[in-house]
Write a structure and sequence with these properties.
The two termini are 63 Å apart. A hairpin with a 4-residue loop joins strand 14 and strand 15. The protein has 5 domains: 140 residues, Arc Repressor Mutant, subunit A (Orthogonal Bundle), CATH 1.10.10.650; 165 residues, Tex N-terminal region-like, CATH 1.10.3500.10; 124 residues, YqgF/RNase H-like domain (Nucleotidyltransferase, domain 5, 2-Layer Sandwich); 134 residues, DNA polymerase, domain 1 (Orthogonal Bundle), CATH 1.10.150; 126 residues, Nucleic acid-binding proteins (OB fold (Dihydrolipoamide Acetyltransferase, E2P)). The chain is 49% helix and 10% strand. The chain is an alpha/beta fold. It is built from 35 helices and 15 strands. A 5-stranded mixed beta sheet has the order 6-5-4-7-8, with helices on both faces. Helix 18 crosses helix 20.
Length: 839
Amino acid sequence: MSENKELKNELIENPAQEEKVKGKKKKSEVESEIVKDYNYARKISSELNVSQQQAEATLELIKDGNTIPFIARYRKEQTGNLDETVLKDIYDRYEYLLRLMSRKDEVVRSITEQGKMTDELFSKIIACDKMQLLEDLYLPYKPKKRTRGTIARELGLEPLAVLIEEQKTETGSVKEYAEKYVDAAKGIKDADAALKYALDIVAENVSDNAEFRSAVREFYKSCGLIYSQKKEKKQKKEAAEKTGEESQSRETDFIKGKKADPLDFQNYFDYKEAVSKIPPHRILAINRGENEDILTVKVTLESENELKLTEISNKKFIRNPKSIFTSDYMEAVADGLKRLVVPSITNEIRSELTDNAESHAIKIFSKNLEALLLQPPLFNKVVMGVDPGFRAGTKISIVDQSGKYLEYMTIYPHPPQNDAARAKKIVAALVKKHKVELIAIGNGTASRETESFIADTIKEEKLDVKFAIVSEAGASVYSASKVAAAEFPDLDVLARGAISIARRVQDPLSELVKIEPKAIGVGEYQHDVNQKQLNESLEFVVTSCVNRVGVNLNTASFMLLKHLSGLNESQAVSIVKYRESNGKFTSRKALKKVPKIGEKAFEQAAGFLKVAESSNILDNTWVHPESYEIAEKMIETAGLDFSGLKGAQGLARVRETFLKIDDKKIPELAAGLSISTQLASDIVNALKKPGLDPREELPPIMLKSDVLSISDIKTGMKLTGTVRNVVDFGAFVDIGIKNDGLCHLSHCADKFIKHPLEVLKIGDILEFTVIAIDMERGRVSLSLKKEPFAEKGFDKNRGGQADSRGGKKPDRQGRDAKDYERNKRDDFSSVEIKFGKLR
């Protein structure tokens, strides 16, 4: 407290500081004591469950220009082995605290300039750890627009307002005191007018009370309801109603993508859910309905809770019931609550719910993107990429083992042409001509029809080839991009899309980095969330994935290189140009010869680059050049002659030798080399798995030669499926039929989980049990539980679960699935979803 007082006094009394407060120096030249003396690391360590030393080390490393991938892999000693996620959390929290402290500085300066700073207020500001609470404290001192309260103050009614708030007057009449402020010249005609003005001041003071606002906020968070209703249009077209044209117009507008289909939001036409319980995806669904002018939304209370809040309000402000102003004060409190506090607080709550929902959606989108980027590659295979379509035909492109384009054709096996016979001959001829080993089918429009066509072709033409379903999200974005045009300047846009689909099987990461991350579309509501935050989060995911996998310096595109630790787009382009002009790199250190690559860029990037052509075997490991000398000594200590180790054979000998080293011997090895155990462990692990690619540990893509029909499926059947998308309420699974099956959250595990991502990710290949089939809508419900039918009241024939009273639970699964389908349609403009299809 004494430190706070000295700091406050310095702001008020120190002439030099006063000059700063008045803004006579640039803000960048003035560092407030509040900001300068704040211990960010201590605060972060208490919030994120890391030590203060770890937080300090991380912040210093980041300030020194080190990237998060570099710190995570090569600075484990300093950070105590923190992973990328924690490192980013530390930095994100640091940036928030910087903004908070800067705002505290502004608030203290403003209140000090007004001469209204007190020890108690200053202490509260210093202790504040949330921006919202800080703004509550500042509200009474914040310069206001002209309000009813400020007008009343200008008219001189503040003394009467103070008298009312003091509640000390127990004798006389209210009118008697109010008449003293009657002034016709000012427009205060009588005692009632004077009292009304004074009560406006009191109501504003009620609103400005930080403790009261906080109490109301918490009350609404615990007892409030989100209430949505169908928005009634003021004008209706009578003629359209009579002829049904309105319905037809709505359908036409929907199909053309002009506006959302109101029926998609009918679940929310009269809907209530607790603020404390409503899930993020439902908040975003309701928000979209509101933005589409279909729903009206508000935060409200049940009538009994409204009465309870009134009681809480009166208890907060009414201290002396005997005061002659008590009833008037209660009126002002009610006015301040209803007119000023509640609208503000409910807006805050809506904003907070939306922010949290958006953050959650971005997190889920990021996790799904990560899983998609890290799908295992199928190197060295000739692939036929198939981009399915109806009227415009199905596009076919073939690439060789290295991804080089070979040939393109368009076939028309589906309506309206229905030329399947000719299409089969073309596919068979192309497979035989180019010795195609795998057919990759995009999962968009006409995907399942094309899958059936390919399966029939393989069977009828006796082709020795398998096929796989591949996400085609973003393929059209890529095909029309400048990157694609530069890569294939002479090819049609449609051919480029099919090439992208083929290459996604060969090396998903290398191909998908060419596409704007949010266009890949593995999530919900990506167009509804904060786009800046979304882009930042997804860029971080792409960068993280690229650096976890590493890149080949001699083959990587600039699109891959620009995501590498320490490099930007300009440096990536410079590397590619240097490679084109000077031939292949023969070592990591040769990177230093490239224009724009300085020492810092080299330090940050080198460890993530592999150079197969190098004479130094360490250039093909995860060992950083800064540790080469130690690694060489370690190899010599292990009994190998480092100078005689060359190429793949040399690396294989090192791997074989180091796989025999027991982890228990690493401390002894470290001591002998005078290095830390952590560094020794990292080098040993890098030599045990020199070309480690995290994708190698994942199950390979599921290859097929035949397809299923929903009529082939029975309840209780076990099916192997590939997880295609993970959302809040479950996972959509490709089980080989027309529509993806849904494994609801409640059936994702035998244990309780809050989110499917705890146990599932995109690309997982698992065995599911069919628990329900809806033939009419083409839907299949799946389960990962060992005994999915064991729950009390579960109807194996119909699906669904009974509650404790024997009645069926609300169809939340169906509502959530419908939200998802509507959202996918809106995001990807797939009219098919309107008719119950997920593709």
